């Protein structure tokens, strides 16, 4: 493969991977932005989305629905997964995070960890220890650009990610509720004094953020063909690295960070032994936290919180 | 038990149903109604109990029940508290010492595991409880202890006792290396970085085949041994008594645990301990008061790492085998769970939690699968209901409940 | 000219001339007893001020009225209705707005968006636009800065933005916390001019100030606060003349 094609291929892979990471990172960054909590359970929310996706797809396939109605199948798989995880996100917030809103940081982090352990083990017990296979719906057919290939499946996922991210951006920038979310994240007490019900706003954040993670989960399941109860951990780390890199709390930052992390991973895999791939992610994460914790597009992390 | 509470109950039940039924009911394409409704039923039952108890509490029934109980309980507890400390400690130690003589092989093994986790918990207690540094990668130091003993023993033939200080030293150095970048970090970022380091160590151990044999692990280390002078033919020589039997290993870890308890207790009461608490409560104020926060924090990491190394070396020696999968992130979480549930900063609490959390799942073997599920739920629930833990350190309780009073939100 | 007010949302108790009444209010920060039995009353459509040294508890009083630091004891009546147990968002819904200490602008939202947040509880788009235009006539510089991020505005501009934001809810009572803090004298005059204009259009004003002179000159009645207690209350003009106040707060 000549250099030009090689670069294009890496770019395609980076954008593909990056958009998935960006979706997960967005969920993280939104939650952190509004309540300054590292939602350790986010990886499990991602995984639950993948599981609901397979449950829906498997059922639809049983009734022979899938082959004939691809679009409706996708809508149902993604839609139900996102709806389910939105409910799950709110449930976790109400049970494990809301009571601790004024408590110490340590308590909140431990509660989040506890939820993460509870959920991943819950999924292990209900869905089994081994991989659950996704039906191979995304064909290997695709386009060629010079010698580089992009499959229709990859195009679908990238377009869907862009659509979701655009929808989120428009919502947060333009709608009243979206602005209320931003206001609550920037200055909670002042937001209350403007009449904003922060309980509702935070609940909304915990619906949207995890839902995006769920979409990413279904995408991963569709593309890589399987889902496991513990696959969320490494994705959570990568998403966290992306969110921090882009500037925690910043939505464009999470998108940018996702792309960068995707790019780094692709380049690394192209030239270096892949067993060490995950170590790179951790090293990148630690370096970012050490050298520039506010990230690329982020502000001073000591937010104006009254 | 007001109307709104009942309404809440039904709403929660509905949402729990939405969450539980699909996930539990469809491990494949057929709906497992029994499983799904069973699990849902369990959660609904728990909530119902909660609702009922709230109702009972409202009518004052609880109050009467509690005062009835306490009138029975009080004479007993005053009696118990009246027993001089040394006496009760002595009885407890005696019980622990006699244990291997009355328990079967399996239970002695459980006891050994408990004691190892007690050592780990106390070590982490220094970092998290005293100095307030949320270390999520603690298990890495355990791994360092295990692997350093294994490698030193296999390649250089060093005995357990000779390798131990080296392992402790390596652990302490690693502690400083990991601690250094975190010195200026906030609590949540600190947690992530330490978790990252923990995983890096595990991944390195897993992938560096030449040194560590990767996922196959290292095999064949000698058990720890006692040396005694013996006068054989030709003069003085050293006899070796290898601690191969389980009871022997049990007593060894017991001694190590006791030493750890004494050391941690001493640290807690010392000036260093108080300086750590000052850093935990308000680092800026501590700095301004002249507390050398930098090297004290590094010291906390190093000391915590040292104890973990000891535990790790013992662990590898006991099994004569070590493997990277023993040191996954979940293990860090378990140790953290022990510290948190026992009571952050509280020595008796950590000991109790270590024993309970390790022993109970072993005793109730059928419930093994639910062990981690229960751990996770317990951690979250504990933080909400009783963040000071089972046996709170007196400082901590005041601190945590003061934080609740200061906030203005509902 | 200020657009006509909409009908008040709560029945005004006839004969009751004070819009806000605090009775024996106590507030604690943890163990610190910040307000030790505050009693005061703000006349409808007037301007009242609360002066006192740093740390006397002035800001705490406003935070307590709004429910941000809830009162431990005592009653707060707004238009005759008790509000001491309400959450801040509920107090805002009753028709109270605040320009808090330090302005508390939403830094990464534009000036326009900040104003929008002030009108969060309202849905009457046409009237909101009218109010926004009125804010721009009060503070013309805000119109120029409308698409700039709140955090990039100067101190004086932020103060104007904070006041504008408070006005966007068409409050019946406007609480101002240290409006002149850190501002150049000319800006202070602008701010107080705006305060008078706002009051003329029907909004009652309760302001808390360290600049006793400015505050008393622009108010009808004044309260003096010292370490959590009200020590003096009187007509503002009278307080300006009083020897006690002159010595302690007017630097004469």
| Strand/helix succession of chain C | EEEHEEHEHHHHEHEHEEHH
Identify the quaternary structure here: heterotrimer
CATH arch. level architecture of the largest domain in chain B: Orthogonal Bundle
Average per-residue pLDDT of chain C, rounded, comes to: 86
Number of helices of chain C: 10
Order of helices and strands of chain B: HHHHHHHHHEEEHHHHEHHHH
Per DSSP, the total helix count of chain B is: 17
The H-level CATH homologous superfamily of the domain at 16-94 and 206-252 in chain C, spelled out, is: P-loop containing nucleotide triphosphate hydrolases
Number of strands of chain C: 10
The proportion of residues forming helix of chain B, as a percent range, comes to over 70%
Question: Outline of chain C, from the CA principal axes?
Answer: globular
Structure, described:
The complex is a heterotrimer of chains A (306), B (410) and C (252). Chain A has 306 residues and is mainly alpha-helical. Chain A has one domain (13-291): ABC transporter involved in vitamin B12 uptake, BtuC. In chain A, 74% of the residues lie in helices and 4% in strands. A two-stranded antiparallel sheet of chain A has the order 1-4. In chain A, strands 2-3 form a two-stranded antiparallel sheet. A two-stranded antiparallel sheet of chain B has the order 1-4. In chain B, strands 2-3 form a two-stranded antiparallel sheet. In chain B, strand 2 and strand 3 (235-242) form a beta hairpin. Chain B is 75% helix and 5% strand. Chain B has 410 residues and is mainly alpha-helical. The longest helix of chain B has 27 residues, at 293-319. Chain C has 252 residues and is α/β, with parallel strands linked by helices. In chain C, the strands form two sheets. Chain C has a six-stranded mixed β-sheet, with helices on both faces. In chain C, helix 3 packs parallel to helix 6 (155-167). The termini of chain C are far apart. The chains are: A mainly alpha (306), B mainly alpha (410), C alpha/beta (252). Chains A and B meet through helix 2, helix 4, helix 5, helix 10 and helix 12 of A and helix 1, helix 8, helix 14, helix 16 and helix 17 of B.
């Amino acid at each position: 493969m000549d250099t030009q094609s090689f670069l294009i291929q890496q770019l395609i892979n980076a954008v593909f991977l990056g958009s998935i990471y960006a979706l997960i990172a967005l969920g993280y960054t939104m939650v952190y932005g509004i309540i300054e909590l590292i939602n350790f359970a986010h990886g499990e929310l991602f995984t639950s989305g993948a599981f609901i996706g397979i449950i829906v797809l498997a059922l639809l396939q049983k009734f022979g629905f899938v082959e004939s109605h691809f679009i409706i199948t996708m809508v149902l798989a993604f839609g139900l997964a996102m709806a389910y995880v939105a409910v799950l996100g709110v449930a976790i917030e109400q049970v494990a995070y809301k009571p601790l809103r004024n408590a110490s940081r340590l308590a909140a982090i431990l509660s989040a960890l506890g939820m993460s352990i509870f959920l991943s083990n819950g999924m292990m017990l209900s869905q089994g220890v081994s991989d659950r296979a996704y039906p191979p719906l995304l064909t290997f057919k695709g386009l060629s650009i010079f010698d580089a290939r992009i499959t229709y499946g990859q195009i679908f996922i990238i377009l869907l990610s862009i659509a979701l991210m655009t929808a989120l951006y428009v919502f947060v920038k333009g709608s009243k509720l979206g602005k209320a979310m931003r206001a609550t994240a920037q200055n909670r007490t002042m937001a209350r004094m403007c009449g904003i019900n922060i309980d509702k706003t935070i609940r909304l954040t915990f619906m949207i953020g995890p839902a995006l993670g769920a979409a990413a989960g279904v995408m991963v399941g569709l593309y890589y063909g399987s889902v496991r109860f513990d696959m969320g951990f490494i994705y959570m780390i990568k998403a966290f690295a992306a969110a921090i890199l882009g500037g925690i709390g910043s939505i464009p930052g999470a998108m940018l960070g996702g792309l960068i992390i995707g790019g780094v991973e692709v380049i690394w895999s192209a030239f270096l032994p892949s067993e060490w791939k995950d170590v790179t992610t951790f090293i990148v994460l630690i370096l970012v936290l050490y050298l520039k914790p506010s990230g690329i597009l982020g502000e001073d992390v000591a937010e104006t919180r009254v | 038990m007001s109307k709104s509470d009942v309404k809440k109950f039904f709403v929660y039940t509905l949402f729990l149903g939405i969450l539980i039924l699909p996930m539990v009911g469809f491990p494949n394409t057929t709906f497992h109604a029994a499983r799904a409704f069973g699990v849902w039923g369990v959660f609904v039952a728990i909530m119902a109990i909660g609702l009922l108890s709230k109702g009972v509490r409202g009518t004052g029934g609880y109050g009467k029940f509690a005062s009835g109980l306490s009138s029975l309980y009080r004479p007993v507890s005053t009696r118990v508290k009246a027993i001089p400390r040394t006496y009760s400690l002595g009885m407890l130690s005696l019980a622990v010492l006699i244990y291997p003589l009355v328990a079967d092989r399996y239970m002695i093994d459980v006891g050994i595991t408990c004691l190892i986790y007690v050592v780990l918990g106390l070590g982490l207690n220094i970092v998290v409880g005293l100095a307030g540094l949320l270390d999520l990668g603690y298990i890495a130091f355990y791994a360092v202890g295990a692997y350093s003993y294994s490698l030193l023993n296999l390649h250089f033939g060093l005995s357990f006792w000779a390798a131990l200080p080296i392992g402790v030293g390596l652990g302490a150095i690693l502690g400083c290396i990991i601690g250094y970048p975190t010195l200026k970090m906030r609590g949540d970022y600190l947690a992530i970085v330490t978790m990252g380091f923990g995983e890096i160590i595990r991944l390195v151990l897993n992938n560096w085949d030449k040194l560590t044999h990767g996922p196959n692990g290292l095999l064949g280390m000698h058990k720890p041994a006692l040396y005694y002078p013996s006068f054989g033919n030709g003069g003085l020589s050293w006899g070796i008594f290898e601690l191969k039997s389980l009871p022997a290993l049990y007593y060894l870890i017991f001694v190590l645990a006791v030493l750890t308890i004494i050391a941690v207790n001493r640290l807690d009461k010392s000036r260093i301990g108080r300086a750590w608490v000052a850093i935990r409560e308000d680092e800026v104020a501590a700095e301004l008061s002249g507390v050398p926060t930098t090297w004290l924090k590094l010291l906390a990491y190093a000391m915590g790492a040292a104890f973990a190394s000891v535990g790790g070396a013992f662990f590898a020696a006991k099994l004569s085998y070590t493997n990277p999968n023993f040191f996954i992130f979940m293990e860090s979480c378990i140790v953290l769970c022990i510290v948190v549930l026992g009571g952050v900063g509280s020595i008796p609490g950590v000991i109790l939690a270590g024993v309970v959390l390790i022993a109970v799942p072993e005793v109730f073997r059928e419930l093994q699968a639910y062990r981690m599920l229960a751990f996770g739920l317990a951690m979250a629930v504990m933080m909400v209901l009783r963040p000071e833990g089972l046996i709170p350190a007196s400082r901590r309780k005041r601190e945590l409940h003061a934080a609740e009073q200061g906030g203005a939100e509902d | 000219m200020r657009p006509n007010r909409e009908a008040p949302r709560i029945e005004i108790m006839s004969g009751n001339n004070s819009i806000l009444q605090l009775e024996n209010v106590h507030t604690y920060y943890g163990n610190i007893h910040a307000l030790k039995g505050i009693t005061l009353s703000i006349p409808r459509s007037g301007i009242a001020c609360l002066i006192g040294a740093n740390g006397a508890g002035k800001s705490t009083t406003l935070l307590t009225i709004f429910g941000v630091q809830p009162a431990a004891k005592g009653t707060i009546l707004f238009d005759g209705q008790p509000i001491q147990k309400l959450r801040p968002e509920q107090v805002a819904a009753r028709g109270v707005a605040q320009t808090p200490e330090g302005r508390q602008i939403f830094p990464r939202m534009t000036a326009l968006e900040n104003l929008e947040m002030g009108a969060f509880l309202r849905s009457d788009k046409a009237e909101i636009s009218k109010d926004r235009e009125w804010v721009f006539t009060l503070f013309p510089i805000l119109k120029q800065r409308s698409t700039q991020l709140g955090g990039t505005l100067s101190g004086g501009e932020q103060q104007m933005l904070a006041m504008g934001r408070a006005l966007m809810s068409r409050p019946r009572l406007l609480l101002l916390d240290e409006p002149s803090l850190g501002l150049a004298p000319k800006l202070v005059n602008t701010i107080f001019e705006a305060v008078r204009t706002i009051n003329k259009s029907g909004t009652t004003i309760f302001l808390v100030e360290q600049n006793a002179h400015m505050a008393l000159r622009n108010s009808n009645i004044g309260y003096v606060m010292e370490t959590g207690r009200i020590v003096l209350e009187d007509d503002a003009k009278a307080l300006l003349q009083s020897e006690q106040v002159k010595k302690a707060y007017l630097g004469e």
